[in-house]
Design brief:
- The complex is a heterodimer of chains A (about 300) and B (about 375).
- Chain A folds into 2 domains: about 20-45; about 80-305, MetI-like (MetI-like fold), CATH 1.10.3720.
- Helices cover about 65% and strands about 0% of the residues of chain A.
- Chain A has 13 helices and 2 strands.
- Chain A has a two-stranded antiparallel sheet.
- In chain A, helix 3 (about 70-75) packs across helix 13 (about 275-300), helix 6 (about 135-145) packs across helix 7 (about 170-195) and helix 8 (about 200-205) packs antiparallel against helix 9.
- The two termini of chain A are about 45 Å apart.
- Chain B has about 375 residues and is α+β, with helices and mostly antiparallel strands.
- Chain B folds into 2 domains: about 5-240, Rossmann fold; about 255-360, OB fold (Dihydrolipoamide Acetyltransferase, E2P), CATH 2.40.50.140.
- Chain B starts with a strand and ends in a 14-residue tail after the last strand.
- Classes of the chains: A mainly alpha (about 300), B alpha+beta (about 375).
Chain lengths: ~300, ~375
């Protein structure tokens, strides 16, 4: 029976180095092929189709595509719909990301102790990872809905209207369900970061006279900054893509105050609005791409990937 | 500068006793090495001095002060950790400065001003950093992060962070174990030098008896949480207090064998070895002879068969089996100075004993008096 090495290398003389460049290239392509196929079929090709779709206007029935070039792009991306949607999406980011980070970190710090039974709390705190957006939304429907909610009042200082009824507070109300749902992820990731800090480093800080608060801000926080950086990027992308909580809790209302970019894209499924929807989608992609890139460039400088 | 005194100190974790009834005086300015195998309690003892572990029972003093309930930062000690425990996100300079930032620091008296303990000003801190960096050859690395340094350099940063506050006591937990062999030898000498320059009390934990023998003023040998012997390197080598110490100090370890005692003689198999230790009426005892105290001599009292020879250039190790002694693990080693022609395996030889024949109680393992010099 020939060994694997002989079959791959084509003979007894074959060594790793003299497989041949062409042969190595072919092997590389073979290994890359599955992911290339998937990427092309499910990302590059649809994305190209999406971009092309934006170049055509539809009639009311979605047929009779008319080529208009980049005109539709400039119209939609400078129009009020894109601007409003983007603004709501940005608000959603502002509501969910800092609070998600804060609560995740607080829970992780609280649960990062060697106490009897702490694993139970760790399991509970991380459980929202296993919750779908739909479930999270229903939970908050029961909590803050104006008719069936446990709490039917409004946000203090913003009037008596129920949270989800008031155009000024509805988006915040929706974001609560995202904050809660993301909590498990934030918790698990920050906890992993905390547990990666060597005990000796904390002890050295104790001997150096750092109190708990100073130790947290001067030692712990900088040492988990790569993890926090990752979380910020992920949470921002999640927030920009949030759809289910809006669909479940407000359907974009009241007075279209919770229509984020994603929701506006969703509303343009009708055949006659396909072109516009495509342009908005490309716009959302562009925004996400730029924001993520900016985060890496800006935050990278403040993150310590120390060994 | 300060002494450190353990009085009946015990440390328990639940039902596990890590350190049991430790009483040990570490003198002011002394280089004390806590030596023992892993799990013997030496690190726990050190961490109790640092305040990183609480004392379960007993009293721990630094200088005249009982520190059982004093927080680590107020004990006037600094510690070098095995992993160095540098702050990866801070520059070398910031790492060194760290103990000065929040802790009150000893400021020596000048021109009639008494010594005081207070927080340092920014300028004073800079001066201290520069001084510590100079002492440890780190001037060129102050702006770097620890990640950009070699293991030896990181170790020096950890030392600089320890010396910068001029503490009363230095604590070191196996600080050389992450260095390669060559650097370890060199750093050993540097630590001894540092101790001489600073004159501060050093408490140094290691499992490496070579480190202990070469650096210590005195060695405290622990096993199973108990202190077995305290003494100078010479004392613990020449007069090990029990079989554990006898086996732990010295490479290769001491040869031991159960022997029958008659008046002034220990009978090991077919050999009759002269014994100075008082038998106190015992019929049996464990006798021990260090490998370096055996010499080939046709008139010697020890008869043995050569099993193996290991020629190392400057010396030869002879694995021998004393005649009449059998069973696994009963082989002895003779360490011979540069033998031109070690005997062939299988030959029967006679060896003379050039050093003391140690004797230990067969049941308790404790040393029988009179078995060595002094």
């Amino acid at each position: 029976m020939s060994s694997l090495g002989e079959r791959l290398g084509g003979g007894r003389e074959a060594r790793v180095t003299d497989t041949g460049r062409l042969r190595e290239g072919l092997i590389a392509v073979a290994f890359l092929a599955p992911s290339l196929v998937i990427f092309v079929a499910f990302f590059f090709y649809p994305f190209q189709q999406l971009v092309l779709r934006g170049l055509y206007r539809n009639n009311a029935s979605g047929t009779n595509l008319r080529y208009v070039g980049w005109e539709q792009y400039s119209d939609v991306l400078t129009g009020p719909e894109f601007r409003d949607g983007l603004w709501h999406s940005v608000q959603y980011v502002i509501f969910t990301v800092p609070l998600g980070l804060l609560f995740g970190t607080l829970l992780a710090v609280a649960a990062n102790r060697r106490l009897r039974g702490v694993k139970v709390f760790q399991a509970i705190f991380s459980s929202t990872i296993a919750t779908s957006a739909a479930v999270a939304s229903v939970v908050f429907l029961v909590l803050i809905n104006q008719q069936i909610g446990v709490y039917q009042g409004g946000v203090p200082g913003f009037g008596d209207q129920a949270i989800l009824e008031n155009p000024r507070t509805a988006l915040f109300g929706v974001s609560l369900s995202s904050i809660w749902q993301n909590l498990g992820l934030s918790f698990v990731i920050v906890l992993a970061g905390l547990q990666a800090i060597p005990a000796e480093v904390e002890e050295a800080a104790t001997l150096d006279g750092y109190g708990p608060v100073r130790r947290f801000f001067r030692i712990t926080l900088p040492m988990i900054s790569p993890v926090l950086m990752f979380l910020v990027v992920v949470l921002v992308i999640f927030a920009l893509q949030a759809f289910a909580p809006i669909e479940f809790l407000t359907n974009g209302g009241p007075a279209r105050s919770t229509e984020t970019l994603v929701y506006k894209i969703f509303e343009r499924q009708a055949p006659n609005k396909m072109g516009e929807g495509a342009v908005l989608s490309v716009g959302l992609f562009g925004v996400t791409f730029i924001v993520t890139l900016a985060q890496f460039l800006l935050l990278e400088r403040r993150v310590h990937y120390g060994r | 500068m300060s002494s450190v005194t353990f009085t009946g100190v015990t440390k328990r974790y639940g039902s596990v006793t890590a350190v049991e009834d430790l009483t040990l005086d570490i003198a002011d300015g002394e280089f004390m090495v806590l030596l023992g195998p892993s799990g013997c309690g030496k690190s726990t003892a050190l961490r109790m001095i640092a305040g990183l572990e609480e004392v379960t029972e007993g009293e721990l003093r630094i200088g005249d002060r009982v520190v059982n309930d004093v927080v680590p930062a107020k004990r006037d000690v600094s510690m070098v950790f095995q992993s160095y425990a540098l702050y990866p996100h801070m520059s070398v300079a910031k790492n060194i400065e760290s103990p000065l930032v929040t802790r009150a620091t000893r400021v020596p008296g000048t021109d009639g001003h008494a010594e005081e303990v207070r927080k340092l000003t920014g300028a004073e801190r800079k001066e201290r950093i520069a001084e510590a960096a100079r002492m440890l050859g780190l001037e060129d690395y102050l702006d770097r992060k620890p990640g950009a340094l070699s293991g030896g350099q990181r170790q020096r940063v950890a030392l600089a962070r320890a010396v910068v506050s001029r503490p009363a006591v230095f604590l070191m937990d196996e600080p050389l174990s992450n260095l390669d062999a060559k650097l370890r030898t060199q750093t050993r000498a540097e630590l001894v030098d540092l101790h001489e320059r600073l004159g501060t009390t050093f408490v140094y934990v290691t499992h490496d008896q070579v480190e202990a023998m070469t650096m210590a003023d005195r060695i405290a040998i622990l096993n199973d949480g108990r202190l077995r012997q305290v003494g100078t390197p010479r004392e613990v080598y020449d007069q090990p207090a029990d079989l554990f110490v006898a086996g732990f100090i010295g490479t290769p370890p001491m040869n031991t064998s159960l022997a029958e005692l008659t008046e002034g003689v220990a009978i090991v198999g077919a050999s009759r070895l002269p014994l100075a230790a008082r038998s106190d009426g015992r019929a049996k005892a464990v006798v021990g002879i260090r490998p370096e105290h055996l010499r080939l001599d046709p008139a010697g009292p020890l008869q043995a068969v050569v099993r193996q020879t290991e020629w190392l250039g400057h010396e030869a190790l002879l694995r021998i089996q004393p005649v009449g002694v059998e069973g696994p693990g009963t082989g002895w080693i003779a360490r011979l100075a540069n033998e031109d022609q070690p005997p062939e395996p299988g030959t029967q030889v006679r060896l003379a004993v050039t050093g003391p024949v140690h004797a230990f109680d067969a049941d308790t393992g404790t040393r029988l008096d009179g078995g060595g010099p002094g």
